[in-house]
TrEMBL record, chain A:
It is an enzyme of class 4 (lyase). It comes from Apiospora saccharicola. InterPro entries: tRNA_endonuc-like_dom_sf, tRNA_intron_Endo_cat-like_sf, tRNA_intron_Endonuc_cat-like, tRNA_splic, TSEN34, TSEN34_N. This is tRNA-splicing endonuclease subunit Sen34. Residues 10-79 form the TSEN34 N-terminal domain.
Automatic annotation (TrEMBL), chain B:
Keywords: Endonuclease, Hydrolase, Nuclease, tRNA processing. SUPFAM superfamilies: tRNA-intron endonuclease catalytic domain-like. Belongs to the SEN15 family. One of its GO terms (molecular function) is endonuclease activity. It holds the Pfam family Sen15. It comes from Apiospora saccharicola. Transmembrane segments: none annotated. The lineage of its organism: Eukaryota, Fungi, Dikarya, Ascomycota, Pezizomycotina. It comes from the Eukaryota. Gene3D superfamilies: 3.40.1350.10. Residues 14-146 form the tRNA-splicing endonuclease subunit Sen15 domain. This is tRNA-splicing endonuclease subunit tsp-2.
């Protein structure tokens, strides 16, 4: 399937042990084709204070990252190692890109300098004309009105030029009063680009910077449900490992609260009663499951789907 | 070979609860597999009980949808099905492996309909003689619409 699909692999950034996807196209692709919607964790630039509606990136569960890696539709990159290494080992194409960035930077610096100089000259001119006006006013009582009429016209000219140029310089001039008043032009004017796409073009496999995924013990159950087309969301709100939806969570209520166990792990019956009772109250089944171990595993090794066994628990209402 | 005494006692507690409190009929205790020769009787992993509840206990959500379409929901109560019961005590622990063994030992009287899983009733007993019943399905079975 992947061979007929020319879509590039989804890039998962591993940063501080969190698995993040930043590309909105990837997010839509995962939701449409791999029943993974995950959780938006980014604050929104327009409203960074609020925490109810989040934006990109999405944070994948470790299980989701691992499933995507196993399906060969994504790769995980350790961002803290990746960026410095990538920039150090820049190829000719990357150099070209970096040159463009540097060009933008020097352009910005130049125009900033020009603006500062123009303003300096303007203020100097304006100050001079004002002084001249004051001096003229003292002497104007007896003199002809010619000088007085000339002086205001110069003043008006300076005013219009001030208003014309004011919106042009970047916000930095208003944020930094020292710049407008200061003598020297700002030293470092670095261009911050909105995307670093051009630096992120590795081909998976030959890249030694791929990071590993640390999956929890409940991973086999997750992979089993994911394989069957269910959508999983974090299970905190129903006290389990995963909330399992039969389709997109925007369209369906969840069917199960799922908790993974080891094949020989002791399960307290009270936990089972608690899960079953809660599930019934919220119209769900309590699903437990895990990877089959021992003799059974050898029997099923050819068929990976049989590797996991799950049981659904419901209150019997009697 | 037989089960330890406490398991037999547990089974009889649940048996009496089903008979006296829930009015089940056709009750039967099982300790050995039915379809084995008498001399090589295989012990079940745990004692089990079968019986017929007075009303239908479980209706698969797909069947429920069908019945709602044909306005025949009232017929369900009158057609109870034989259920398997697994007695357990609240202080016991169990593993997925044990649950799988119990399901594998279940001999159903007739083959299952397509797409359906085995199910049993887990009867959980506590010392104050409370018995609670939970359905356990062998597989991923969607919840009932209630």
């Amino acid at each position: 399937m992947t061979s007929s699909n020319p879509r590039p692999h989804v890039r998962i950034s591993k940063a501080a042990n969190r698995y993040l996807v930043f590309d909105i196209d990837d997010v839509m692709y995962l939701r449409r084709n791999h029943n993974i919607c995950s959780v938006f964790v980014g604050t929104m630039p327009q409203a960074p204070q609020q925490s109810a509606f989040m934006g990109l990136p999405i944070e994948l569960m470790a299980e989701e990252a691992q499933v995507l890696v196993e399906k060969k539709v994504a790769y995980v990159v350790d961002d803290s190692n990746y960026h410095p290494a990538r920039i150090a080992a820049a190829g000719p194409q990357d150099r070209q890109y970096l040159d463009v960035v540097k060009g933008i930077t020097s352009d910005a610096q130049r125009s900033m300098r020009e603006i500062t100089e123009a303003r300096k000259a303007m203020f100097a001119h304006k100050g001079a004309s004002k002084k001249k006006e004051r001096r003229d006013k003292k002497a104007s009582d007896a003199q002809s009105s010619e000088d007085v009429t000339v002086a205001p016209s110069v003043d008006a000219e300076a005013d219009t030029s001030l208003f014309d140029t004011a919106p042009e310089p970047s916000p930095a001039t208003t944020k930094n009063p020292s710049v407008t008043r200061g003598e020297a032009a700002p030293e470092a004017w670095l261009a911050t680009l909105t995307t670093s796409d051009a630096l992120l073009t590795p081909s998976p496999g030959q890249n030694e910077l791929l990071a590993s995924v640390d999956v929890p013990a409940s991973y086999p159950l997750y992979a089993h449900l994911q394989d069957k087309g269910y959508f999983m969301m974090p299970g905190l709100r129903f006290g389990c490992d995963y909330n399992v939806y039969p389709g997109d969570p925007l369209r369906f209520h969840s069917h199960f609260q799922a908790t993974g166990f080891q094949w020989n792990e002791d399960i307290k019956l009270l936990d089972l009663v608690t899960g079953g009772r809660l599930g019934t109250n919220v119209k769900k089944s309590f699903l437990i499951g895990g990877r089959v171990e021992g003799e059974e595993q050898q029997r099923d090794e050819t068929d990976k789907a049989l590797d996991v066994r799950a049981f659904s628990i419901e209150w019997a209402a009697m | 070979m037989a089960h330890p005494d406490y398991l037999a006692d547990l089974a009889s507690t649940v048996y009496e609860n089903l008979e006296s409190q829930h009015d089940w009929t056709l009750l039967e205790s099982h300790t050995h597999k039915k379809q084995s020769l008498p001399e090589t009787k295989t012990l079940l992993p745990r004692p089990l009980i079968t019986g017929l509840p007075p009303r239908r206990l479980y209706l698969h959500p797909d069947d429920q949808v069908e019945l709602v379409k044909t306005h025949a929901t009232y017929t369900v109560d009158e057609t109870p099905e034989i259920e398997w019961v697994l007695p357990m005590h609240l202080n016991e622990k169990f593993t997925l492996k044990q649950m799988a063994e119990v399901f594998d030992s279940l001999e159903l009287p007739e083959p299952l309909a397509e797409g359906r899983c085995k199910r049993l009733l887990m009867a959980i007993v506590h010392d104050d003689s409370t018995v609670v019943y939970y359905f356990v399905h062998d597989g991923i079975v969607k919840p009932r619409q209630n």
